[in-house]
Structure formats: structure tokens, C-alpha cells
């Protein structure tokens, strides 16, 4: 099939590349000339394991193309995916849909035959209704169908999630597009993916409800971790004990910093905003948002209980992205913790496998270390913030000569017993 992906951010690029790898002809469109030029040369704007190889492979096989010409790309395609950003509005909890609707207006100028127009972006309930109204001002309704087809890709594992999805959700109000899209996804359905066919509004809400529930699981185990710290219990035991219950499941039950990234913070706010619009009170999700917002403050209080004064203390900060296997800094706890430590007079060295971050460039006494070893050398306290595999092989025995060294493991990567046997003070989350 001939597909057009509008927007070459995380969702649009990963989805477009994977669709091309399934044998479809894909054009990825973006208004950023520099980005498109780099993509044509196989240069990837995001960090996602395996993505660069797939891009180069499918460019070579002439199944993947990049363009800044939206009009021409839409005309050449049968199915158009809208994959633009839907960030939180300033001074509001609602999603900013201006890019979605702007793209809809542009698409309406280029429809020359029947097109399926899909919102791949995460959008609130009724967005598809509004998009249909916008396009129908220029185009006869018989020439297009607006569909919701939410993505469920985890950063760092996106390619696997696309190829082996738990489910494919297609929300459409008419049968023709449902049949076409079931055919598009048939290679994945044949591998075991469940095909969920709903109306358009239901598909829109499925995405938000999924993210809100996962955010709730993370927040729940973080609050249980707070209780574990007060009662002398290891939260890892709790996670295992409840995670083995099939009704609960073990995924997203790892205690740690606040949830962050491109989805959970904005999507929990957006679903609450939608509920408020329809005069429905989502009190549980509101509590989740509040608890998560307070999470970094709680971690800082714990830090203060470990080290009373940070002035002139050498702090090593390992990992700054919101999770491993991504370069995404959005709503990462490090954006709150590192500036705070800087203001308190700490001397901070940080390391992340995805490189230095502009967010810390102007902070006093904060510098990027080009290796783990350079980062932890001469440290008073090592803070492990992100669970990169690179950190699991650190040889703390070499550091054990420093009897005053403290490790604050925010991801519970290491065994407290093993670290403490080396004479190093160890603190974890919920331990």
C-alpha cells in the first residue's frame, strides 16, 4: 500500500519505517528541511535501538522516502497518517491540537481520490469528529474517511512493539476503511496481534485510558515504596509478590523516580481535561498526577536525609533521560534534581550514554563526563537515576577504598548486601 506519514517525530518516523519494512511504499513528510535532508542520508534525529539500520535498509530498497512536499505526498498516497505533536497547552491541562487541525486543513486541499486519514497522534475524544468537519468543508465526505489508530510504542523498544504488538486498535465509523486497515495490518495479525475494531471515539479513549492506567501502576508502586522505607521492607519483594497475580501483572511495578517522557505526563492531564469537559470526575487519575508531581520533592528529601549539606560535595549523576534506551529528556526527574543540587552548591558530574544535554549547559558546577569512570572518579555520592545496562557492570570494588562513598540507587539496580559488604553506604528506593 502507499502510505504517507505526516510528522517525522518519534511516532511518525518509527511507524513509517516499520510500515516500509513490511513491504509498503512510505513517504515520511516534515516541514523541517534540515531534518528531511538528514533522513535522506540515513541520519536519525532520535535515539531508538535498531532504527537507523531499518531506515538505511528501506531507503536502499526504495520503499522509504522523505519529503517536505505535503501536497504531492498526500496525492500519491492511499492512507495518510497524522503523526504530529499534541503537547499540553500552556496554562492548561488540555491537549494542544493546533498541529493536528492545521494538517487536516492542508490535507483537504490535496484529496484527489478516496483517502483514509488516520490520527496516529494521541488525541482526545471528539478530535476525529472535528477533523472530519474541517476536511468536509473542502472535500465531499465520500472521498475520505477519518480513522483513529493509536500507537502503543515504548521508547527504547519501539521497533519490537510495532512488529509484535499486543493489539492493533482501529476506530472507524464505517466499514470500508476497517477492511482496508485490517489488510494493512494483516502481517502483524498473522503473528498473533489482536485486532480491535471499534468506533472512532472509543479508539481515541483507549489510548488515553491505557496510558493513565500504566501511570497509575507506576505511581502506586512508588507510593508503596515510600511505605516500605518507613517499615524496613524491600519494595522489590512487594513488586514480585503482587506482580505474580495474573490480575495485576508484573510490568510497570518497578519503583523509582517520577514517570516522565512524551506520553504519561501530558496524557494523564489530557484525559482529566476531557473528563472535565464532559462533567465526569476522574478523581483517581487526578490523585496520580498530584502524587507524581510530588515524587521528585520526596526523592530530594531522601537525599537530604542521606547527605545533610551538599555544598562542595562531589556528586556523580548516572543517567539523565527519563528511562533507559532513549534520549528523551521530557519530564525527566533529573531536570528537577540536578538544578536543585547545583543551587545547593554541589559539584556535579553527569554521564548518559546518549551524550550531554543542553538543559544543563547553563547550570553552575555541572559538567558532562565522557565516560562512567570519569563521572564516578572522586565522588562523594553516586546517584543512579536511569537504569541503563551500562551501569550494571560498574566495579564498585575499585571504589571501596573510599570509605565515605555513598550510593543512592534510584532504580534498585544493585544488591544492597553486596554493595555494603564493600564498605560502601547504599540507599535504594523503598529499601
Architecture overview:
This protein has 431 residues and is α/β, with parallel strands linked by helices. The protein folds into 3 domains: 2-198, NAD(P)-binding Rossmann-like Domain (Rossmann fold, 3-Layer(aba) Sandwich), CATH 3.40.50; 208-293, N-(1-d-carboxylethyl)-l-norvaline Dehydrogenase, domain 2 (Orthogonal Bundle), CATH 1.10.1040; 295-428, Rossmann fold (3-Layer(aba) Sandwich). Helix content is 41%, strand content 15%. The protein has helices at residues 10-21, 33-40, 51-60, 70-76, 98-108, 127-136, 158-163, 175-184, 186-189, 200-231, 235-243, 264-277, 283-306, 334-343, 372-376, 416-421, and strands spanning 2-6, 25-29, 64-67, 79-82, 115-119, 144-148, 167-171, 194-198, 314-318, 347-351, 366-368, 381-384, 406-409, 425-428. The strands form 3 sheets. The chain has a 6-stranded parallel sheet with strand order 3-2-1-4-5-6, sandwiched between helices. A 6-stranded parallel sheet has the order 11-10-9-12-13-14. Helix 1 links the parallel strand 1 (2-6) and strand 2. The model has no long low-confidence stretch (mean pLDDT 96).
Amino acid at each position: 500500500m502507499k502510505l504517507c506519514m505526516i510528522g517525522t517525530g518519534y511516532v511518525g518516523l518509527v511507524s513509517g519505517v516499520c510500515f516500509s519494512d513490511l513491504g509498503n511504499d512510505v513517504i515520511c513528510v516534515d516541514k523541517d528541511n534540515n531534518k528531511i535532508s538528514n533522513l535522506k542520508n540515513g541520519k536519525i534525529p532520535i535515539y531508538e535501538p535498531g532504527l537507523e539500520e531499518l531506515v538505511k535498509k528501506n531507503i536502499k530498497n526504495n520503499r522509504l522516502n522523505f519529503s517536505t512536499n505535503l501536497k504531492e505526498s498526500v496525492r500519491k498516497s492511499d492512507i495518510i497518517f497524522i503523526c504530529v505533536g499534541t503537547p499540553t497547552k500552556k496554562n492548561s491541562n488540555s491537549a494542544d491540537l493546533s498541529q493536528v487541525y492545521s494538517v487536516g486543513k492542508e490535507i483537504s486541499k490535496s484529496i484527489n481520490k478516496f483517502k483514509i486519514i488516520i490520527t496516529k497522534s494521541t488525541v482526545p475524544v471528539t478530535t476525529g469528529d472535528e477533523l472530519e468537519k474541517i476536511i468536509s468543508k473542502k472535500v465531499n465526505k465520500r472521498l475520505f474517511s477519518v480513522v483513529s489508530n493509536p500507537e502503543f510504542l515504548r521508547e527504547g523498544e519501539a521497533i519490537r512493539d510495532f512488529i509484535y504488538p499486543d493489539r492493533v486498535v482501529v476506530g472507524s465509523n464505517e466499514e470500508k476503511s476497517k477492511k482496508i486497515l485490517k489488510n494493512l495490518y494483516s502481517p502483524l495479525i498473522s503473528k498473533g496481534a489482536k485486532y480491535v475494531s471499534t468506533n472512532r471515539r472509543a479508539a481515541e479513549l483507549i489510548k488515553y485510558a491505557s496510558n493513565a492506567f500504566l501511570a497509575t501502576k507506576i505511581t502506586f508502586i512508588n507510593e508503596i515504596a515510600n511505605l516500605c522505607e518507613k517499615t524496613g521492607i524491600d519494595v522489590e519483594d512487594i513488586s514480585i509478590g503482587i506482580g505474580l497475580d495474573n490480575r495485576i501483572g508484573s510490568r510497570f511495578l518497578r519503583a523509582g523516580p517520577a514517570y516522565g517522557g512524551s506520553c504519561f505526563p501530558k496524557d494523564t492531564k489530557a484525559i482529566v481535561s476531557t473528563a472535565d469537559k464532559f462533567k465526569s470526575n476522574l478523581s483517581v487519575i487526578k490523585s496520580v498526577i498530584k502524587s507524581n508531581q510530588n515524587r521528585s520533592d520526596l526523592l530530594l528529601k531522601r537525599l537530604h536525609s542521606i547527605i545533610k549539606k551538599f555544598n562542595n560535595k562531589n556528586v556523580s549523576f548516572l543517567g539523565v533521560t527519563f528511562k533507559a534506551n532513549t534520549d528523551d529528556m521530557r519530564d525527566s526527574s533529573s531536570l528537577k534534581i540536578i538544578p536543585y543540587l547545583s543551587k545547593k552548591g554541589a559539584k556535579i558530574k553527569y554521564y548518559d550514554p546518549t551524550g550531554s544535554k543542553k538543559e544543563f549547559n547553563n547550570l553552575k558546577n555541572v559538567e558532562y563526563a565522557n565516560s562512567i569512570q570519569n563521572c564516578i572518579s572522586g565522588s562523594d555520592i553516586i546517584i543512579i537515576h536511569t537504569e541503563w545496562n551500562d551501569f550494571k557492570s560498574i566495579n564498585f570494588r575499585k571504589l571501596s577504598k573510599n570509605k565515605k562513598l555513598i550510593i543512592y540507587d534510584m532504580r534498585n539496580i544493585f544488591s544492597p548486601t553486596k554493595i555494603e559488604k564493600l564498605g560502601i553506604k547504599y540507599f535504594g528506593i523503598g529499601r
